[in-house]
Specification:
The structure is a single chain. This protein has a domain of 31 residues. It is mainly α. The protein has 2 helices and no strands. The longest helix has 29 residues. It is flat, with a radius of gyration of 20 Å.
């Protein structure tokens, strides 16, 4: 059985401002890192697609 999800803490004051500023920062990644992420993304999506096809085939 899954555990219940805990409440998300609310940030106030300096912590809230620091969090907001960090969320506004642009993250720069190299082309090599981007290519690595893309390869893993495509592999994951291919696995998901195969699983969905298998599940659909089993129900038909």
């Amino acid at each position: 059985m899954a555990r219940p999800i805990k409440e998300t803490p609310i940030l106030y004051g300096k912590d809230a401002r620091r969090f907001e500023a960090r969320m506004q920062e642009k993250r720069h990644i190299s082309q090599e890192e981007r290519a690595r992420i893309d390869v893993h993304y495509k592999a994951g999506m291919a696995m998901l697609e195969r699983g969905m096809r298998r599940k659909h085939a089993a129900t038909v």
